[in-house]
Design brief:
Low-confidence stretches: 1-7, 109-125, 248-253
Largest sheet: 5 strands, mixed
Strand order of the largest sheet: 1-2-3-5-4
Radius of gyration: 42 Å
Oligomer: single chain
Helix content: 55-70%
Strand content: 5-15%
Number of helices: 10
Number of strands: 5
Distance between the termini: 51 Å
Structural class: alpha+beta
């Protein structure tokens, strides 16, 4: 359901507009008013400028204007602000009674105690007495009641907004709780399944290393065992992060930096050459992105062209940092290792978060290329 939000006019603007209208009314009636009445009207208008902060005091200052029968708009503004900004019902009721008493006193003939300007019957009883009282009551109560109505409406809107915010917060908490349960389940599955399989690989590689028939087999088995160990370490870190996501204990795992790239390349078991170098002042986020890009590039080469030659190129200028993993065509075919197709997608998302780009695709010589471009941002000084 679409909700159309109403345009709210600032209350200061409404007060200013009312004062302008009241001033115009006094200006029109100035010819029918005495000098005292004009002065009292001007003072009432000036006091109305502070009606939002001191509504009761401004109302009391306007009571003389009610007594001498000036323009009704000046005291009506003060009465409205009493109803709008005064929270205590007794004070509002006292102001209402005071205004009503002055209106009744103004309507009485002090000599005969009869209502002025109304004819009387032969027995001396005033006609239309009840109607005159109702008019005085309406004139005194209407501005105050209007102010109370506006105040009540604003309070209801604020409470509704608070309820909406509370409901949104509860929904967010439920969502976070569901995500935490999913992360915990995923962490358990990763720990129970993947770590078990990798541990078996490490054990088998260790046994092969101990009983290797030749030196090449021994080195290969040692490489497999070392890679299995590092994979288990990475898996532990990921499980810890998944379990801690959304809590104050997140960010526990140490993240790789470019200083670990030589060991990563050395342990890959591929024919890799390195060109260029990286600037020393890269932020930690960019270092992690570069490390993961090189890691993913070497992993793809092991999967699809394990006998290819690989070149890892680093470059930088004043505006960007460039990392490329290039390989020649492989002749032995793919290794048959499983692939979920999520590695490059995750690298692209990581690059976009850093306002960079990632491109991947076949090269003209039949090989494959992976290139990461990130904006040059210096690391903050420690």
């Amino acid at each position: 359901m679409r909700q159309h939000s109403a345009v709210r006019v600032p209350e200061a603007a409404i007060t200013g507009a009312l004062i302008v209208v009241a001033a115009l009314d006094v200006w029109i009636l100035r010819g029918q008013m005495s000098r005292t009445a004009v002065v009292l009207s001007g003072l009432g208008l000036l006091c109305s400028l502070a009606a939002r902060r001191f509504p009761v005091a401004v109302f009391v200052c306007n009571l003389p204007a009610v007594a001498i029968g000036l323009s009704p708009l000046v005291p009506a503004i003060a009465a409205y602000h009493v109803g709008r900004y005064t929270k205590r019902p007794r004070v509002v009721a006292a102001c209402l009674c005071g205004a009503l008493a002055i209106l009744i006193w103004r309507s009485l003939d002090t000599e005969t105690l009869l209502w002025r300007h109304f004819p009387v019957d032969p027995d001396g009883r005033p006609e239309l007495l009840f109607s005159d009282l109702m008019l005085d009551l309406m004139f005194a109560a209407a501005p105050i009641l209007l102010g109370r109505l506006v105040a009540s409406r604003i309070e209801v809107q604020e409470r509704l907004a608070e309820i909406v915010r509370g409901r949104a917060e509860r929904e967010e908490l439920h969502t976070q709780a569901a995500l935490a349960r999913d992360r915990a389940q995923l962490a358990r599955e990763m720990h129970d399944v993947v770590s078990h399989q990798v541990s078996l690989i490490a054990v088998q590689a260790g046994a092969l290393e101990m009983n290797a028939p030749d030196a090449q087999t021994e080195r290969t088995a040692a490489t497999v065992r070392e890679l299995s160990r590092k994979t288990l370490d990475e898996l532990r870190y990921m499980v810890t992060v998944l379990r801690a996501s959304g809590t104050a204990a997140s960010g526990l795992a140490p993240q790789p930096t470019v200083t670990r790239l030589p060991a990563l390349i050395r342990d890959s078991g591929l024919d890799v050459s390195i060109r260029g170098e990286l600037p020393p002042d890269l932020p930690a986020a960019e270092q992690r992105a570069i490390y993961r890009t090189v890691q993913e590039g070497l992993t793809n080469v092991r999967k699809y062209a394990p006998d290819a030659r690989v070149t890892v190129e680093f470059g930088s200028d004043r505006t960007e940092v460039i990392v490329a993993v290039l390989n020649t065509p492989g002749s032995g075919g793919a290794s048959g290792l499983p692939s979920g197709g999520h590695g490059l997608r995750g690298l692209r998302e990581r690059a976009e978060l850093l306002e960079g780009t990632l491109t991947a695709g076949p090269r003209a010589d039949g090989g494959f290329g992976l290139e990461l471009r990130l904006p040059r941002v210096a690391a903050p000084a420690s």
